[in-house]
Design goal:
By secondary structure, the chain is an alpha+beta fold. It folds into two domains: about 20-80, Arc Repressor Mutant, subunit A; about 90-265, GAF domain (Beta-Lactamase). It is about 45% helix and about 20% strand. It contains eight helices and eight strands, in the order H-H-H-E-E-H-E-E-E-H-H-H-E-E-E-H. The chain has helices at about 20-35, 45-50, 55-65, 80-110, 155-160, 165-170, 190-200, 245-265, and strands at about 70, 80, 115-120, 125-130, 145-150, 205, 215-220, 230-235. It has a six-stranded antiparallel sheet, sandwiched between helices. A two-stranded antiparallel ribbon has the order 1-2. The two termini are about 35 Å apart.
């Protein structure tokens, strides 16, 4: 397993690479130690082996146990926790998804004038991990790493529509839904109704809910297990498209999503 990249060989932060938090670096070193050495270790051995004071090691280990990144067995030994596997699966899924997006988009050559993006769902947000700028000068300025409320976006609505209704309830019950524009969904009941429409037609439409005057279409992408790993979307000025053109663009986007899904092993 690769060591934390912002340390020197003796574990001190490297200079000139931006601000770092020493306790986070220490947490990374503890995870590295358990990943590359014996699978279980005592608090004392971690403290001595990494040159970290015992009190600091205990505080960091307690925090890692709380997040699920470490597990403390009844005999007091620490080992990697189940959340490390969840993170690795998420990383591999995103990496494969992004790679397929980058490969398939130029191969199909769909919607060349419009901005295409791919995104993943993180709780009630979407995070954009890929972008292909269109030739048109008009469009939403999506940036890699940008987060937006899922209920406002076509990518988010398309992914939420594939979740069990119980999971949607869990995510949004009691939550205050953020408004990006005056057209954004404002309640859980409204969100339920919208997701039912998305499930029926197979794609989501963001009609001025992320940015005024823009319309976006989103389609989920699935992997070999049939699970949704992300979504692709196209963004365009609303006034430039008729309903017939919108339907045609949705068909092209679904073709793109299907091709990416097949590349990920989906049936």
């Amino acid at each position: 397993m690769a060591k934390v990249g912002t340390q020197t060989e003796n574990g001190t932060p490297r200079r000139g690479e931006g601000q770092v938090v020493p306790s986070v670096l220490r947490a990374g070193r503890i995870l590295d130690e358990l990943a590359s050495g014996p699978p279980r270790a005592t608090l004392a051995s971690l403290s001595v082996g990494l040159g970290i004071p015992r009190s600091s090691t205990l505080a960091i280990c307690n925090s890692l146990v709380e997040t699920g990144l470490l597990t403390r067995d009844p005999d007091g030994l620490y080992r990697l926790g189940p959340h490390t596997l969840e993170l690795s699966r998420a990383f591999l899924g995103q990496a494969d998804f992004h790679a397929e997006f980058q490969r398939v988009v130029p191969e199909l050559g769909v919607l060349p004038e419009q901005t295409l993006v791919c995104a993943v769902l993180r709780e009630r947000d979407v995070v954009y991990i890929g972008r292909r700028a269109g030739t048109s000068p008009l469009g939403v300025g999506y940036e890699i790493g940008m987060r937006l409320p899922a209920h406002c976006t076509a990518t988010g609505l398309s992914m939420l529509s594939t979740l069990p209704e119980s999971r949607v309830e869990e995510l949004y019950d009691g939550a205050e839904l953020e408004h990006l524009t005056d057209r954004s969904i404002g309640s859980l009941e409204e969100l339920r109704e919208r997701l039912a429409v998305v499930r029926e037609r197979g794609y989501a439409v963001d009609d001025g809910e992320t940015a005024p005057g823009m319309i976006c279409i989103g389609v989920p992408v699935r992997d070999d297990s049939g699970e949704t790993v992300g979504a692709v979307a196209v963004s365009m000025p609303k006034g430039a498209h008729s309903s017939a053109q919108l339907t045609a663009d949705a068909a092209d986007l679904r073709r793109l999503a299907d091709q990416i899904s097949r590349g990920l092993g989906a049936p």
